Amino acid sequence: MELNCVLGRGPLALKNLKRVSHLEESRLLRPHFVKHLSLHHLLFLSLSDTGMRLLRSASEQSKPVLHSLKPRLNPALHLSPFLRPFSADPGPGPELSRQPNDDPIVAQALGLLQAPENSWNAAELSRLLFPSPPPTPAHFSKIALGLGASDKALKFLEFVQSNSPRDDAPVFVSHAFQSVVKLASREPSWEKALLELYKMSRQRDIRLTVNASTLLVSFFGRAGMVDEAVSAFEDVDRNARDGDLYELYVGMLFRHGRFEGALKVLDEILDPGSRFAASNIPGKIFFSALLRRLQGEGGSDADEIVGFFLKLIELGVFPDSVTLSKIIKNLCRNGEIGRAWDLVLRVIQSGGPVEAAPFNVILVELGKRLDFKRMNELMIKMKEINIPPDIVTLGILINHLCKSRRVDDALEVFERICTKQEEGLSCKPDTVIYNCLIDGLCKVGRLDEGAELLRKLTLQDGCKPNVITYNCLIDGYCKCCEIDKARQLFDQMSEEGVQPNVVTVNILVDGMCKFGRVGHAVEFLKDMKVRGLSPNVRTYTSLIKAFCNVNNFEKAMELFREMSRSGCSPDSVAYYTLISGLCNAGRMDDASSVATELKAAGFSLDVVCYNNLIGGFCRKNKLEEAYEMLKEMESSGVKPDTVTYNCLLSYFGKTGNLTTANKLMRQMIEKGLVPTVVSYGALIHGYCLKNNVEEAMKVFRDMNSVSKIPPNTVIYNILIECLCRNDKVDGACSLMDDMMEKGVRPNTTTFNALFKGLHQMNWLKKAFEMMDRMNEHACKPDYVTMEILTEWLSAVGEVGKLKNFVQGYEVSACTA
C-alpha cells in the first residue's frame, strides 16, 4: 500500500518505477514489493521495459508470489502477444509471456518446455506431441506461440522436425514455423530475422502456411524487399491461397509498380479452375489496389493505371458503383475529366453495371469549371444509354446553374422534375433543390419568385422548408434593402416551428446595419439573446463596423470589450474592422492600442491593416510614426504594396516635399510595383499646390504616354483648377476638350473651376458654352456655381441666361 502511494498513478507511475529500477539488484527488492502493487501499477509494469525487468527479477525470487497475483492481473495484459510491440525487450520470461490456454496438450507442452533446452524431457514431449491419433496442427502453432520468443519457438520447431515419426510431420512443422514468424515480426531487427527465417524455411523444405506467407509478404513489402515477398507468395500452394493473401499481395505489387506481376495474379484468379473466378473477389482486390495507387500510394502513373483498368474490364471484372465513383473522382481531381468519361463508357460498353453516381462525380467537376456545354452532353448521353438521373444528379445541375446565375435554365430543369417530363425519372424535388433555387432567385433579385417557391415547399407533402431555406430568402430581402419584409419572414419562420440559428441572426443584424438601422440591430440582438441565441464574432463585427461608420467609437469599443467578456474571442477580422474605423476617424492612439492587443492575442497585422495605420498617421501629419510602422511592416515579412506607397506619396505631395515623393515613386517602380492613378495624382496635386504647372503637366503627359494609365476626373479637376488659377484658361479649356475625347465624365467641380477662370478673363461666350455642356452632362449646379454665375451674369445683364440655365434650357444661342 505504501508503494502504491509512492509510485502514484498514470505516467507518473512509469517515471517513478524507472527511478527505483536500481532496487532490482538490491536486497530491498523482495516478493512483497510485487505483492503490494495495485492493478494499475501492474499494468504499467507489464507495458514497460523497467517493469518487465522488475517483474522477472521478482519472479526469480518468488514464483509463488506471481502465482498469487494472477487473479489480480488480466492475463491478456501481460501474457498476450499483443503487448510485444510495446516493448523493446526480446521477450519476457515464460511465466509472463505464455498465452494461457485451456487446452491440456498445449498447457502440458508449455510446462515441459520451461526447462532449458538441453534438459527437455524428450521422451515425455514425444509421448505428448506424437500419440495416435496426433494433435491437430493448430496445437503446434499454439505451443510455439506460447513460448513468447522466436528463438525458443525455433528450438521447438527443430524438436518437432527431428522427433516427429509421422507422415504429417511437415504440416506440424509448417504451423510451428508460422508462429516463429509471428513472434519474430514483433521483435527488434525483424527485417533481418524474417529474412533469415525465410531462407531457413527454403533450405529445410518447410512448406509455408497461408498465414505465414501473409505475414512474410506484408513485412517484406513494407521493408521494400519485393523479390522476397514475391517468392514467399509463390511458395504457398495455389489452392491454399485465400482472398486476404491475394489482396495483400496485389496491393504490394501495385505499390511498387509491379504491374506485370499483378497481371499474372489476375490470370491465376480468373482461371476457370480457381474458386474465386466467379466471385466478386477479383474486382474487390484489383480495383481497391488501383484506387490506392491512384490516390498516390507509392506514386502514380495514370497511363499504367488506366491501362490496367481497361484490362480488367476486357476480362469482365467490373468495379462496384462506389469504387468506380472513387476512381472517377480521383481522375477528375487530376484534370483527367475526358479520361474519366471514357472509362465510364468502356464499363457500359463492356456490359458492366453503372449507376448515376459516377456521372454525378463528373457533373460536379464540370460544374466547377462552368462547362455547361459538356454537362448538357453528359445528360444527353445518360438518356441515350438508359441511365436515369437521380435526385443528386438533378441537384448538382440546378446548383451549378444557379451559382452561375442561369436561374431560368435551373427553373426549366425543376419544372421537368415536377411535371415528370424527363423519361424514366421517378424522383421528386427535395428541400435541397428548393433551397438552391430560392438562393439563386434571391441572388438575381427575383425575390417574389423565391417567396412563391417557399410557399410551394411549405404546401408539399414530405418536404418542408428548413433554416437554410429561410436564411436564403431573408438574406435576399436584406440585400435589396427590404428589411421589414426580412423581419416578417423571420417571424413567419418562428411561427412555422423552424428555429433560427446564428446565421439567421447575422444576416438580419448585418442587413440592418448596412441600411442605417443600427439601433434596430442592437434591439434585435437583445431579443435573440433572451431567446437563447448567442451572437458570434461575425455578429459583433457587423455592429462594430456600423458604429464606426457613424463615428460612434465609444459604442464600437464597448461592443468589442463585450465580445471578449461574453466568451466570444475576437478574430483577426474583428480587430482589422475596428482598427480601420479608428484610422479613418484619425483616432490613431486608439488604433495603435487595438493593434497592440491584436498582436498580444497571437494575430499578425496584414498589409491592409498596416496600410490603414500608415495612412492614418500620414493624415495626422505623424510621419515619424508612419515610418516606424513601415519599418515594423517590413521586419515582420509583410511587403509594402502600391497602397502603402500611395499613402506616403499623398503625404509628401500635400506637404510639398516633391523630391522625396519622386524618390518614392522611383523606388516603387524598382520594386516591381506599378504606379496607379492615385500615385500620379499625388505628384500632380503636389506640383499644383506649388503652382508648378509645367511639372504637373509633364507628370500628366508621362502618365498618358509612358505608363498608359488613363487619368480620372479628380486629376483633370486638379489640373484645370491650377491652370485657371495661373491665368492659363486656354490650357484649362483644352484639358476639358481632352477630357471629353477620352470619355472621362466631368462633374460639378470641373465646371466650377472653369467658371472661375472664365470669369477672371471675362470670357462670357465661352462661359455660355460651358453652361450648355454642364446641362448636357446632367451636372447639377451647386451653391458655388450659382454664386459665381449670379455675380457675373447680373453684372453684365444676362440674368435671363442664368434662368434658362437653371431650368435646363440652352443658353449659348442668341436671345430674341
UniProtKB/TrEMBL annotation:
Transmembrane segments: none annotated. PPR repeats lie at residues 320-354, 390-420, 430-465, 466-500, 501-535, 536-570, 571-605, 606-640, 641-675, 676-710, 712-746, 747-781. Keywords: Repeat. Belongs to the PPR family. P subfamily. This is Pentatricopeptide repeat-containing protein. It comes from Eucalyptus globulus (Tasmanian blue gum). The lineage of its organism: Eukaryota, Viridiplantae, Streptophyta, Embryophyta, Tracheophyta.
